[in-house]
Design a protein that fits this description.
The complex is a heterodimer of chains A (84) and B (157).
Chain A: H1 3-11, H2 18-49, H3 55-62, H4 70-83
Helix pairs in contact in A: 3-4
Chain B: H1 6-11, H2 13-23, H3 27-44, H4 54-79, H5 95-103, H6 106-117, H7 122-129, H8 133-156
Classes of the chains: A mainly alpha (84), B mainly alpha (157).
Chain lengths: 84, 157
């Protein structure tokens, strides 16, 4: 086999073994789960960080989004839009 | 949401497999290295300043993961009795491809793979492997010589 033929053979598409495909899928599934957990934690910590008792209502009425009640305000606003 | 470009990772599966297989000897280890690379990419994507360098960055992570696995195995072997059989992949998938790969010595295999198969430039390979570009060029020249020698030997036999 010539030098070039060897390189061409190395360039050709290989079959990705099942074990590799399976572990890759598992990694993506784990990322999906971690991303969801991260999103949920952000929502919880945003709610926990909100120290202003009237903040939520103020934000909604002024259409201002503070970091404290961002998630709830968003939901409230979306809710209103949907209701309209 | 997932921060890493999944489409790019999917497109690179062939290259990732070939690169990892140039360093590691069995598909189980290759699978571990690739899955750990994907997870690390997701965790560290914020450290990548420019998406144009995603492929180089991801390949560097993959090479490091492969080397980590080799180091771990070496440590395990030092502390445990040697296995009865050598830990080499016995699968028949891609047999011809693997046979050609194994004709290249370990010293030049990865550099040849990154340059000729994945199409990286020597400066990019230098970044991936963290070795000087001049060393990459020397390894490529010697790898080509070795490949030519093997071909010549095969023709004369």
């Amino acid at each position: 086999m010539m030098e070039k033929e060897k390189l061409d053979l190395l360039r050709k598409e290989v079959i990705i073994p099942d074990v590799v495909n399976k572990k890759t899928e598992d990694a993506f599934a784990k990322i999906q789960r971690m991303a969801e957990d991260h999103e949920n934690k952000e929502k919880i910590s945003a709610q926990e960080n909100c120290t202003d008792y009237h903040c939520r209502n103020t934000c909604i009425s002024n259409h201002v989004r503070c970091s404290g009640c961002l998630y709830e305000v968003e939901q409230e606003l979306f809710g209103r839009i949907e209701n309209v | 949401m997932i921060g890493i470009p999944i489409d790019q990772v999917d497109e690179q599966m062939q290259n990732m497999y070939k690169t990892a297989r140039a360093i590691l000897y069995n598909d189980e280890d290759v699978a571990d290295a690739i899955s750990e690379t994907i997870l690390t990419c997701w965790e560290k994507i914020g450290q990548l300043n420019d998406n144009r360098y995603f492929r180089t960055w991801m390949t560097r992570i993959l090479v490091n993961k492969c080397n980590d696995l080799i180091r771990k195995k070496e440590t395990l072997l030092k502390n445990e009795a040697p296995p009865e059989q050598a830990d080499i992949d016995k699968g028949f998938e891609n047999a011809e491809w693997k046979a050609v790969l194994e004709t290249l010595s370990e010293t030049y295999r990865l550099v040849m793979m990154l340059y000729y198969i994945e199409g990286f430039k020597t400066c990019e390979i230098s970044q991936i492997l963290e070795i000087p570009e001049s060393t990459i060029r020397t390894k490529l020249a010697r790898g080509r010589e070795q490949l030519a020698d093997i071909c010549e030997l095969r023709r004369t036999v």
